[in-house]
């Protein structure tokens, strides 16, 4: 599996650096999903004659790159799911946006509704019926000629939260035409990357930090 970038693997979990074109779990497109690719990798690497177990414990949007965790056992899957539910996993994203944030760091708090017809998050400044509170911390890391690199740490985990909250502040993610970017990226990616994940290993009970390099392109390269 030469196109699969494994960031971490042991007997219990496996972390993959997802390409923007990959979808985590199969959908109506019929494209082969990342979980099936990882299953094939495990089957081939360990010469397993039967189907292998792989638990999906979280997802990131298809045009987003970066870390996706999978569980290799049902015990690890249950424990990782609990860590995500109880917010005992710290996720850090990188986002490249078109306008420079002011102030350079802070916390955004909004309320989000999912519009199921257009598959888009609607952001409100005040509580609305059915809208869920969405909170994230951001920090400006670097400014390029036309773009700005932000570190984003979501406190909550809402639908399209980072994409929609940043866009609501007019900090639109490069390539994210759904949320107001002027033009799409050639590969249909957006410049949002799941950069780092930190948690206590569900079985070994040891602190674990996993970091994923962003995709290779001129903008990401300039951010490094």
Order of helices and strands: EEHEEHEEEEEHEEH
Number of strands: 11
Report how far apart the termini are.
Answer: 27 Å
Average pLDDT value? 95
Number of helices: 4
CATH C-level name: Alpha Beta
Oligomer: single chain
Low-pLDDT residue spans: none
3D shape? globular
Classify the fold: give the CATH topology.
Pseudouridine synthase
CATH superfamily: Pseudouridine synthase
Q: Which strand-content bin applies to the residues?
A: 25-35%
Determine the structural class based on helices, strands and strand pairing: alpha+beta
Describe the biggest sheet?
11 strands, mixed
Outline the structure in words.
With about 220 residues, the chain is of the alpha+beta class. The protein has one domain (about 5-224): Pseudouridine synthase. Helices cover about 15% and strands about 35% of the residues. The protein contains four helices and eleven strands. The protein has helices at about 35-45, 75-85, 160-170, 220-224, and strands spanning about 5-10, 15-20, 55, 65-70, 90-95, 105-115, 120-125, 130-145, 150-155, 190-200, 205-210. Strands 1, 2, 3, 4, 5, 6, 7, 8, 9, 10 and 11 form an eleven-stranded mixed β-sheet that branches. A hairpin with an 8-residue loop joins strand 3 (about 55) and strand 4. It is globular, with a radius of gyration of 18 Å. The mean pLDDT is about 95.
Notable features of this structure?
single chain, 224 residues, alpha+beta, Pseudouridine synthase, 11-stranded mixed β-sheet, 4 helices, 11 strands, 17% helix, 34% strand
